[in-house]
């Protein structure tokens, strides 16, 4: 696939857009990590090595609040667990030998998986995964460095940036609405998560939402695109 | 903040990522399981959107974010570019928060 191919453009544009949006939160993380007593090097190492935003923010919050080693690790890893189901999803779509897969693992996160599965063409799925994963890796680490050095950041809430990530996922998720099963899984997943948020530790409700995939257990055959929903398989960028 | 904390979380986070990607790999799975796995992003990302829109910590909360995400849904439905969807959603959230706050 040539980089000049027109259908690649919306994928690459969106991957950079997502990278920038995520980079803003990396600045917030960088500030938080240094405020919690970490060095600039430690803040950057967290983003380079952990590369799971929710886990990093959680660990910093626990440490800043005087929490123990165990509670910091436990909270962070519950939030990281969802990447294992994203790994399962991507394992069906990625090609390549073990070294490539070990590299792909580090960028197997919400955004790269969502972008990949929003494409219908298998080759485009792989391009979307790598482009989004690499873009977010670069911007997440740049943002962390900027935040750690600056030590004071804008308040993301003031600019509505706390809604930017769910809004981006809304745009990415639209292709999943084209099948009945996709709509059922989305509705059930969201409902399971909201219903369990008040009762379960932070991070667990998102894992519970994966149970919604069980809507696909009954007999196959009806999972064809609806004729009334026109989806090109590409993002409307 | 200690280096052992950072490295422990990094090892655990990477292990979760590798688990699905490398351990299962691309070997064939039963058809029903494949159909279920294909729905993971729809189910889980929808849950993340719901959580980020309607909750703070362990509390459900309706605030300006809901207005922003609703605008984003309309923009995505109208096939607006992703960048427009994000900016429209964030701007709506900021404006509603300013007015309501």
Q: How would you characterize this protein structure?
A:
The complex is a heterodimer of chains A (about 240) and B (about 100). By secondary structure, chain A is mainly α. Chain A folds into two domains: about 10-175, no CATH class; about 180-220. Chain A has eleven helices and no strands. Chain A has helices spanning about 10-35, 40-50, 55-65, 70-80, 80-90, 100-105, 110-115, 120-150, 165-175, 180-195, 205-210. In chain A, α1 runs parallel beside α3 (about 55-65). The longest helix of chain A is centred in the middle third of the chain and has 29 residues, at about 120-150. Chain A is globular and about 50 Å long. Chain B has two domains: about 1-35; about 40-100, no CATH class. Chain B has helices spanning about 5-25, 30-40, 40-55, 65-75, 80-100, and strands spanning about 55, 60. Chain B has a two-stranded antiparallel sheet with strand order 1-2. The radius of gyration of chain B is 19 Å and the shape is extended. The interface between A and B is large, with 105 and 76 residues.
Identify the notable features of this structure and list them briefly:
heterodimer; A: 237 residues; mainly alpha; 2 domains; 11 helices; B: 101 residues; 2 strands
User: Helical proportion of chain B?
Assistant: over 70%
Uncertain stretches of 5 or more adjacent residues of chain B: none
Number of domains of chain A: 2
For this entry, what is the oligomeric state of its chains?
A: heterodimer
Largest sheet of chain A: none
Question: How many E-type strands of chain A?
Answer: 0
- Count of folded domains of chain B: 2
Largest sheet of chain B, in brief, is: 2 strands, antiparallel
Q: Proportion of β residues of chain A?
A: under 5%
> Distance between termini of chain B?
35 Å
SSE string of chain B, helices as H and strands as E? HHHEEHH
User: What is the molecular shape of chain B?
Assistant: extended
Q: What structural category characterises the helix and strand content of chain B? A: mainly alpha
Strand content of chain B: under 5%
> Number of helical segments of chain A?
11
The gyration radius over C-alpha positions of chain B equals: 19 Å
């Amino acid at each position: 696939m040539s980089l000049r191919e027109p259908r690649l453009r919306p994928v690459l544009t969106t991957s950079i857009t997502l990278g920038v949006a995520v980079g803003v939160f990396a600045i917030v993380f960088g500030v938080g990590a240094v405020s919690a007593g970490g060095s600039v090097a430690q803040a950057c190492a967290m983003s380079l090595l952990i590369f799971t935003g929710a886990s990093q923010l959680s660990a910093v919050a626990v440490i800043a609040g005087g929490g123990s080693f165990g509670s910091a690790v436990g909270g962070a890893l519950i939030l990281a667990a969802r990447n294992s189901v994203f790994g399962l999803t991507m394992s069906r779509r990625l090609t390549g030998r073990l070294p490539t897969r070990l590299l792909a693992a580090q960028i197997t996160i919400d955004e790269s998986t969502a972008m990949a599965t929003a494409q219908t063409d298998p080759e485009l799925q792989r391009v979307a995964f790598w482009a989004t994963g690499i873009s977010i890796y670069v911007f997440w680490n740049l943002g962390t460095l900027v935040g750690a050095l600056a030590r004071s950041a804008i308040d993301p809430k003031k600019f509505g940036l706390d809604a930017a990530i769910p809004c981006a996922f809304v745009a990415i998720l639209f292709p999943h609405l084209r099948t009945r099963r996709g709509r059922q899984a989305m509705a059930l997943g969201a409902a399971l998560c909201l219903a369990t948020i008040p009762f379960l530790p932070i991070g667990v409700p998102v894992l519970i939402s994966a149970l919604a995939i069980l809507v696909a257990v009954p007999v196959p055959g009806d999972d064809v695109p609806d004729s009334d929903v026109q989806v090109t398989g590409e993002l409307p960028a | 903040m200690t280096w052992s904390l950072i490295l422990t979380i990094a090892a655990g986070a990477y292990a979760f990522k590798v688990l699905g990607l490398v351990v299962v790999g691309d070997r064939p799975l039963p058809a029903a399981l494949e159909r279920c796995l294909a729905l993971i992003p729809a189910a889980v990302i929808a849950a993340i959107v719901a959580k980020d829109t309607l909750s703070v910590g362990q509390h459900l909360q309706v605030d300006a974010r809901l207005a922003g995400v609703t605008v984003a849904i309309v923009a995505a439905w109208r096939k607006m570019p992703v960048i427009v969807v994000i900016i429209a959603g964030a701007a709506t959230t900021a404006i509603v928060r300013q007015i309501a706050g």
